[in-house]
Amino acid sequence: MMLDCTPLITTxxxxxxxxxxxxxxxxxxxxxETDAFVMKHARRHVSDTSHLVLLRxxxxxxxxxxxGDASTIYxxxxxxxxxxxxxxxxxxDRAVFQSAFIFKSALGFHPSTHLRSGQINPESVAGxxxxxxxxxxxxxxxxxxxxxxxQLFERFLACAQIALGAPAERExxxxxxxxxxxxxxxxxxxxNLGDFELAVPRxxxxxxxxRASLYRMFEESGGVRNYIRQRRATRALLDVSRHPFKRxxxxxxxxxxxxxxxxxxxxxxxxxxxxSPGAMFDRSPRLISETRASNFGKRIExxxxxxxxxx
Length: 311
Description:
The protein is an alpha+beta fold. The protein has a domain of 120 residues: Jelly Rolls (Sandwich), CATH 2.60.120. 42% of the residues lie in helices and 21% in strands. It is built from eleven helices and eleven strands. The chain has a six-stranded antiparallel sheet, with helices on one face. It has a five-stranded antiparallel sheet with strand order 1-4-9-6-7. Strand 6 and strand 7 form a beta hairpin.
């Protein structure tokens, strides 16, 4: 048993004590929705769990307690770290939280290594990578709770290892960490496409990577500048498609999605698709199925009337 839990009666309780658990050979993953309770991780628990480290993420609610002689307050946002060789106790309000009890050896530490309790800053590069990998893993678990996706789990472990300062000597760990950082950068780009200042220098400053590393991440997309241009063009053209003949639509979407001007937007769309955005939409549009129906029907008829075709 990892800890003792004693339910508390509060006005915020709704009668919920739900737990989903997934087991691997390297970690135990949990999603909990609970009413208030008192938790205690005492000496007798330490003897069974000292080889584990707990990563806990509060999605709602708070936990007040102490680890050793230090006071703790767990809130939503950071990922909280607890070495299971330490005794701790606390009072948790009604909360939704996710936990990962991870073998220290799976993170590259010796089982007897003491890890300092604290929190991983969600705004740091390592924290953002870990939270992204965490979300992807738990999204997969909720979508199909009969198995743990190995690639998502290994990426999560690699990000946890980097965030905790463990040695990342294996190439596969570094690869998982780079892939996680790439996902974080892509999401940052998508969120900031409308910002005129979104460019290589800002990404270098935001994520602390070298220009060469950033280029390698986006090499298959023709470089990061080309990737940003393609994403801006895609989002802008989707907006145009909703009201393609509305007066001023080209200028509006060009401003919204970070293009320097409407002519600049027109030029980029023409480079990508061969036509300006205003020329890409039919003023009397019909569904593809309607415009192709007669030709499709003729082809089917020809196939059925070919010599040797079955009837």
